[in-house]
Amino acid sequence: MNRIDRLTAIIIYLQGHHRITVDELADRYDISTRTVYRDLRALQEAGVPIGSEEGKGYFIVKGYHLPPVMFDKDEAAALLAGERLMQKWKETKLSESYLSALDKIRAVLHSREKKYLDTLDQHIKTFTHSDERQVETDYLIFVFLQDAVVRGSVISLEYYSPYKDQYTQRDVEPLGLLIRDNYWYLAAWCRLRTDYRMFRVDRIESYKKTGEQLPELPEHTLQEFSEQSLREEKDLKEVVVQFDEEMVRYLGDQKHYRGWTSEERVDGGVKMTFLTSSVEYFARWLLMWGDGVIVHQSKQLKERVRELSKELYQHHNS
């Protein structure tokens, strides 16, 4: 990106946010903080009313606006691709709002770009993976959760846990919405567990506001949640297993959901390295591959697979 394009992009970015720090701009445009300060000064000298507040960042003074921004065909095509990715949640308010925004963008395109986009629209399709289950999500839950996050509203959830096959009532402090392994999650502080938790959105049975508002500077934050998640990732256990050629064909994308990090081809198959937070769950997953898998590491995983195999044999032999 050349400097003129970057300066325009910075104005648009500032105009779309309440406050932006120098570090955020440096990360977004992959430039040094020194370059950010130089760009901001250049914009101020050019007459763009950029203000700053110590400790909070920079902002565009209220009342200033750029002329209407036009999208080029590449930007519009990227948004169209995003619309295809949104089809997994096509029955939600989130997807409806995205499609409405895309229609407005189409309306301001030049005729040449519209024709380009219409042609591309006919040649981008999505196919559901054969292993993917249909996820039914409440139509308005994204609107509710987004509003709760922004307003700092404590909310009450009835949440289903498939592992225990039970529903629990949780009062939570919402921190943010995340996508992980193709599912939406609510990151929150759970008052029942007195710890940070992630709640899969399609498992939230019912929801409501409690009427309690969090303070402007809440005790629990998304930053702290992220830091805790990183610490937990450092505690992951490394396991190494070998799948034979036939099993590798059926494994597909499942390896990515189990913490796959690397692999190498060996005689008779593929040796794969995983990082897992639960040797127990990983051992149970390996059982489905029968004699098509060999455990190389760790000793704990080998022992648990042996125990589970023995229990399974005794069960079916009784």
UniProtKB/TrEMBL annotation:
It comes from the Bacteria. Coiled coil: none annotated. Residues 3-58 form the HTH deoR-type domain. Pfam families: HTH_11, WCX, WYL. InterPro entries: CBASS_pafABC_assoc_protein, DeoR_HTH, HTH_11, PafC-like, WCX_dom, WH-like_DNA-bd_sf, WH_DNA-bd_sf, WYL_dom. The keyword Ligase does not apply. The keyword Endoplasmic reticulum does not apply. Keywords: Transcription, Transcription regulation. This is YafY family transcriptional regulator. It comes from Fodinibius salicampi.
